[in-house]
Amino acid sequence: MTTGADLDLADPSTDPREVARAAAAVIADRTGAERHDIALVLGSGWKPAAEALAGLGDPASSTEMDNTEVPGFTAAAVAGHSGTIRSIPLPDGRRVLVYGTRTHYYEGRGVRAVVHAIRTAAAAGCRTVVLTNGCGGLRPEWAPGTPVLIRDHINLTADSPIEGANFVDLTDLYSPRLRDLAREVDPSLQEGVYVQFRGPHYETPAEVAMAKVIGGDLVGMSTTLEAIAARASGMEVLGISLVTNPAAGISATPLDHQEVIEAGQAAAQRCGDLLARIVERI
């Protein structure tokens, strides 16, 4: 079995899919599960969802490993994230692969590292991925703690995880079927367009105004590159944002990452239960 220890994602000669396969092999070995079915990426404020999912089945059957034990992964770099990978069995026999953190574009490790978790999930057998994040809201009626379905996105990183002449259609990237399913669980869920900036600095009020003009409803620093990689890997994508604060210029209050963490904590129970119910029905 390839360990992946000598595979460097930053090396242009390395095939990122080979690193993903090596990572999936380690996860299968550690969990004793030949395949997983659903992947879940937890953004700021979504950590309690893992516990809610574990509660659906036998918690003793869950397996957790540190990111650093798996090829291509590194420790969490953002406060409020958990640097672990967790395998959770559902009562119907399916398994959910839960990432407690993500690699952000602004960390400077390259797009391959940003989407490595997605490619690993695909290599592990996942056909569905749920991407969550904490974000700034552009609509005043979306108070901090409001979950919003992602209907579409605008990628302002000027980058892509796709290499070479591999043309991927993104027309219905965020699955209408899964959004409908989510609204069956919670009919109050609204949806919007997520705009990813490069970060790590927060957006200026002028940039937020621009995002609104071009059709954005939510702004953040993640998700779009992962979603593109998931589509390229043949996965069905559901995206859910947690509005943790009004975006710059929407409120007179200066932005602070601690505010993001606290808003997530305040909405933790609702978001955790919501996500568990959605994943259970996928």
UniProtKB/TrEMBL annotation:
Catalytic activity: a purine 2'-deoxy-D-ribonucleoside + phosphate = a purine nucleobase + 2-deoxy-alpha-D-ribose 1-phosphate
Associated pathway: Purine metabolism; purine nucleoside salvage
All residue ranges annotated as the Nucleoside phosphorylase domain in the record: 38-280
Binding site for a purine D-ribonucleoside: 203, 245
UniProt-listed Pfam families: PNP_UDP_1
Keyword Protein transport on entry: no
One example of a Gene Ontology biological process annotation: nucleoside metabolic process
Chain sites annotated for binding phosphate: 44, 81, 102-104, 134, 222
Protein name: Purine nucleoside phosphorylase
Species name: Ornithinimicrobium pratense
